[in-house]
Amino acid sequence: MLVAYRRAGRQVAAYRSRRQELNRSVKQIRSIANEVEPLDVKEQDFDSTDAAELEAVNWLLDTARIQRESAARLRQVVSDLEESGKALIKVFKGSNLQRKIKQAEEGYKLLKDKLAGAAIQDPSEFSSLIQRRQAFEGQLSSLDQIEGDIQSLNAEALDTLDALESLRLESSAKRSAFLGQILSENDYVRMTLVPFGNDPASQESEFRRAIAKQDTRIASDVLDPGKTRGILAELYEGVQLEPSDSRTKELMNRVRAIKENILATHAGAENTDRTQWFRNHIQSLRAEQLDRIRLWWPEDTLQIEYRQPQQSGWAPLSSGSPGQKSAALLAFLLSYGEEPLILDQPEDDLDNHLIYDLIVERIRANKRRRQVIVATHNANIVVNGDAEQVVTMDFRKGQCKVLLDGTGCLQDMGVREEICQVMEGGREAFDSRQKRLAIGAQHAT
Description:
Number of strands: 7
Order of helices and strands: HHHHEHHHHHHEEHEHEHEEHH
Strand content: 5-15%
Low-confidence stretches: none
Strand order of the largest sheet: 1-2-3
Radius of gyration: 57 Å
CATH architecture of the largest domain: 3-Layer(aba) Sandwich
Mean pLDDT: 83
Structural class: mainly alpha
Distance between the termini: 116 Å
Shape: rod-shaped
Helix content: 55-70%
CATH superfamily of the largest domain: P-loop containing nucleotide triphosphate hydrolases
CATH class of the largest domain: Alpha Beta
C-alpha cells in the first residue's frame, strides 16, 4: 500500500507540474504579446508632402501592423494553452487515474492509522518493517525445515532404541543358548543366565556411570547400603528370582519407566520420589549424557550351581568351599574353546576325587582339540591326563632350571622315575593309569 501511495504521489506531482508549466507558459506568452503590441504612430508628426518622411511613415505603419498581427497570434496561443489546461483538468477529474490516486490516498490513510495504533508514527518505517518481516519469514522457513529434520531424527532415534532393545534380548538369548550348549554334558557345574540380573548391588556401578555420578553420593536415590531404597532396589522389588519370559518383560517395563522418569526430571518435571540433590544433578546433565541413560540396560548375571562327584543334588556355588568353587570354574573353562589353554596348579584347594573326576578327565578330552599346558605338583594330572610331553623343573640359585633327565614322554624311564620321586602320589598314579589302560584294552577286545 505504501508503494502504491508513493507511485500515486509521483503521478499527482507529474500532473501538477504539467499544469504549472502551462500556467507559466500562458503568463510568459501573454507578457510577450503585451510587449509586442506597438505604440501608436502619430502621422501628424510627419510631412506627407515630403517623400522621405512619407516613406518613413509607411515603414513605421507596416512594422506596427506586423507587431499587432504577432501579438494577436500570441494571444491565440495563450487562448489555446488555457483551453488545453482546462481540458487537462476536466480529463483528470473524471479519469481512472484520479480514482486510483484517491484509492491510494485512502489506503495510505488507513495504513497510517494502523501504524499509529502500533506506535509507528513515521510511515516510512513501513518498508523496513516489510523487509524485516520477509527476513523473519525466511528464518521461519528455515526453522520449519530444521524442525522437520529434528522430528525425522527423533523418529530414527526411537527406531534405533527399539532395535537396541531387540538386540539386548537377543544377546541374552544367545548367552543362554551358549551356556546350554557348552555345559549340556558337564556333570559338575550348571550355569543359568538371569536376564537383567537379580542383585541391585551388581548393577550400581554401570547405572552410576550412565547417570554420570560414579561416587557414593545420592545413595538413597540410587541404592542405599541396606539395598532396600533407591532406583535399583525398586527395580527388583517383588520380582521373581527364577528366569522366565514374564520376568524379563516385567523388568524391561520397569527399566523403561526408570528412564522416562529420569528424562522427565531433566525436563523439569516435579519428582517428589527423589531428593533435591538427585534432581539438581539430573537437570545438570548434557544431551550426550542423557543418551547414556537411554542406552543403559541392567547386565545379565549367572546363577551358578555345582555338584559333587557321585552325588545327585545341585547346590549354589556361593555356598561351596573354595575348592568346590575352583572346580566349578575349571569345569566351565575346560568345557569349550579350541585356543591354547595354560593352567597354573589347577589342583590347589581340590581333593583327589575332584582332581581325577574333574580335571584329569577334562584335560584328556581337551587334548583332542587344543593344546593344554599345565604347571602342577600333582602326579594324577600328569600321568592319568596322558601328558604327551613332561618338562621337569627345579629352582636352583634363584632360577628355574629344566632337568633334562626328567624331560620327555611318559614312556621314558627317566621321566617316570622323576615323577615317582618328586611328585606326590606318583607311583599310585601310574598304578591307576595301568589299571585304566588294562580295562580299556579289555573293552576294546
